[in-house]
């Protein structure tokens, strides 16, 4: 059997400052070339699980492996060549330009104090072009809109040229057109480069359109994981999101129509 690119094994996760586990007993394998969408209500543990998969949070119990080895046994530089992570609210020093930010994604591939190679410069150019940031490359991040900054951070992750991308709400702060544009770009990256992508999304229709598998988190546990058409249904929407809804397929795309809040007794 093929070794997963990333594999969470019965992890319990407790972020700093929390008095309880935000994620409890979750197992999830991510294989080469697949897109896995994490969905669930606010507070269900999506960002916490992504942080742990990206080695930003140690499991309290359980373990996470990258290509069969515990992620905490990898040297940081080695792990950064395997997994790139875009957190939900990334931050950096003031005054950095878009091009400088994207170029920082090449640090895992360079020795300290060495100039960028031809491969580094090419990776930065391709990432900037992929996210249509050419006209913004000299602008500093604080002068950009929220959506433009989001695209710049996504370009950084892309320039890192890892076989795995972890993206926490990459469509946040984008208008609807740019949301679908980013999702289309992620699909092309996945197809062209065989990059495995784990992405958290709020929009179930977007998750169904993009992902090979959807993992649904509810109250810190894995409610279900599988093909979108198998796990996104009316019963799940009632159980997890507390709504009565209709799920249908139109023009080859899943449509979710929320009808009303669910009966509170049935939604328990």
Work out the strand percent: 25-35%
Q: Structural class of the secondary elements?
A: alpha/beta
Rg over alpha carbons:
19 Å
Largest sheet: 6 strands, mixed
What does this structure look like?
The chain is of the alpha/beta class. The chain is 31% helix and 27% strand. The chain is built from 9 helices and 12 strands. The chain has helices at 46-53, 76-80, 98-103, 118-130, 146-159, 176-193, 204-210, 228-231, 234-241; strands at residues 6-13, 23-30, 35-39, 61-66, 69-70, 83-86, 164-168, 196-200, 213-218, 221-226, 243-250, 253-261. The strands form 3 sheets. Strands 6-7-8-3-9-10 form a 6-stranded mixed β-sheet, sandwiched between helices. A hairpin with a 2-residue loop joins strand 4 (61-66) and strand 5.
Features:
268 residues; alpha/beta; six-stranded mixed β-sheet
Give the gist of this structure.
With 268 residues, this protein is of the alpha/beta class.
What is the topological layout?
Elements: E1 6-13, E2 23-30, E3 35-39, H1 46-53, E4 61-66, E5 69-70, H2 76-80, E6 83-86, H3 98-103, H4 118-130, H5 146-159, E7 164-168, H6 176-193, E8 196-200, H7 204-210, E9 213-218, E10 221-226, H8 228-231, H9 234-241, E11 243-250, E12 253-261
């Amino acid at each position: 059997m093929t070794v997963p690119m990333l594999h969470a094994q019965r992890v319990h996760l407790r972020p700093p400052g929390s008095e309880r586990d935000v994620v409890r007993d979750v197992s999830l394998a991510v294989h080469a070339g697949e897109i896995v969408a994490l969905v669930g209500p606010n507070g269900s543990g999506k960002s916490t699980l992504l942080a742990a998969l990206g080695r930003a949070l140690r499991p309290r119990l359980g373990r996470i492996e990258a290509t069969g080895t515990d992620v905490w046994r990898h040297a940081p530089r080695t792990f950064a060549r395997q997994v790139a992570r875009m957190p939900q609210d990334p931050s950096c020093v003031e005054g950095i330009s878009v091009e400088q930010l994207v170029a920082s994604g090449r640090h895992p591939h360079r020795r300290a104090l060495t100039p960028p190679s031809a491969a580094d410069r090419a990776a930065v150019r391709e990432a900037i072009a992929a996210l249509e940031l050419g006209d913004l490359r000299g602008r500093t991040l604080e002068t950009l809109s929220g959506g433009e900054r989001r695209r710049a951070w996504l370009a950084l992750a892309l320039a890192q040229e890892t076989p795995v991308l972890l993206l926490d709400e990459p469509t946040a702060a984008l208008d609807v057109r740019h949301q679908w544009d980013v999702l289309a770009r992620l699909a092309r990256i996945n197809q062209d480069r065989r990059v495995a992508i784990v992405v958290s999304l709020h929009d179930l229709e977007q998750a169904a359109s993009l992902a090979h598998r959807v993992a649904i988190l509810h109250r810190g546990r894995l409610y279900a994981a599988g093909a979108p058409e198998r796990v996104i249904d009316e019963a799940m929407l009632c159980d997890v999101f507390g709504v009565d809804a209709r799920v249908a397929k139109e023009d080859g795309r899943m449509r979710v129509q929320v009808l009303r809040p669910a009966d509170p007794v049935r939604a328990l």
